[in-house]
Design brief:
The protein contains eight helices and six strands. β3 (109-113), α5 (121-134) and β4 (141-148) form a beta-alpha-beta unit. The chain has a six-stranded parallel sheet, sandwiched between helices. The mean pLDDT is 95. The chain is 42% helix and 14% strand. It has helices at 9-12, 30-36, 41-62, 82-105, 121-134, 150-164, 173-177, 225-237; strands at 22-26, 67-74, 109-113, 141-148, 190-193, 212-215. The chain is globular. α2 packs across α3 (41-62) and α4 packs parallel to α5 (121-134). It is of the alpha/beta class and 247 residues long. It has one domain (22-237): Undecaprenyl pyrophosphate synthetase (3-Layer(aba) Sandwich), CATH 3.40.1180.
Length: 247
């Protein structure tokens, strides 16, 4: 638990039970951020990587967020121009190489959520190396959704259950969750979406059933530590009922 003096003033008095323990973010708006500045879309993706670094380190520093899950690459993103796809793959590979020391210094454990088969071998190698090196870290878990689609995840879970020989009467919500990419992790408490979009975009459909949703008009490259604090405060103001009533 962090010392209160290390927390931003607006969060210092927030009771620990009011904090979101798992935050999931749909990082949207890199291309629009660049286009508004007369820059190529790739410049927005490069700036977005810097925001990933800043927000990951701040979430870890706050000390009460156990999981941060970032939507890095959708399984639908392969429809984009090949030039952009190639750039994103190289950017992802370089992120894994360059951020590894920071990840280790911050005691962050990295995992990947998504289908591995379509990813280039050299990109997978760097992802796996980061996962391997950080596997014994005991701090915040950084879950990177790469080539991820929630419908595909659910299909993969069904296939896994069938292959396991599980009987229909044995399939409970808890058992099903153990066959998802997120097995062993708590469901998100808070889903954040940037760039003002009001849709889920095939992201963690099973896991966000009871998550609070907070949307900001800021594009991802403009998302700052202060924006993260704002999201946490907004979450803390809400009453989570899980279908029931406050008494």
């Amino acid at each position: 638990m962090p010392q209160s003096e290390s927390l931003p003033a607006e969060l210092a008095d927030l009771p620990t039970e009011r904090w979101p323990r798992h935050i999931a973010i749909i990082m949207d708006g890199n291309g629009r951020w660049a286009e508004r500045r007369g820059l190529p879309r790739m410049a927005g993706h490069e700036r977005g990587v810097l925001t990933v670094r800043q927000i990951t380190e701040e979430a870890s520093r706050l000390g009460l967020i156990g999981d941060l899950t970032l939507y890095c690459l959708s399984s639908e993103n392969w429809k984009r121009p090949q030039e952009e796809i190639d750039f994103l793959m190289e950017l992802l590979k370089q992120y894994m190489i360059e951020e590894r020391p920071r990840i280790m210094n911050n005691n962050i454990q990295v995992s990947m959520l998504g289908r591995r088969s379509e990813l280039p071998a050299e990109v997978l190698a760097e992802i796996d190396e980061t996962i391997r090196q950080s596997s014994a870290n005991t701090g915040m878990r950084l879950n990177l959704a790469i080539n991820y689609g929630a419908r595909g995840e659910i299909i993969d879970a069904v296939k896994s259950i069938v292959a396991s020989g599980m009987k229909p009467e044995e399939v409970t919500e808890e058992a099903f969750a153990e066959h998802l990419y997120t097995a062993g992790r708590p469901d998100p408490d808070l889903l954040v979406r940037t760039a003002g979009e009001l849709r889920i975009s095939n992201y963690l459909l099973w896991q966000i059933s009871y998550a609070e949703i907070w949307v900001t008009d800021l594009c991802w490259p403009d998302f700052t530590e202060a924006t993260l604090h704002q999201a946490v405060l907004e979450y803390a103001r809400r009453e989570r009922r899980y279908g029931g009533l406050n008494v």
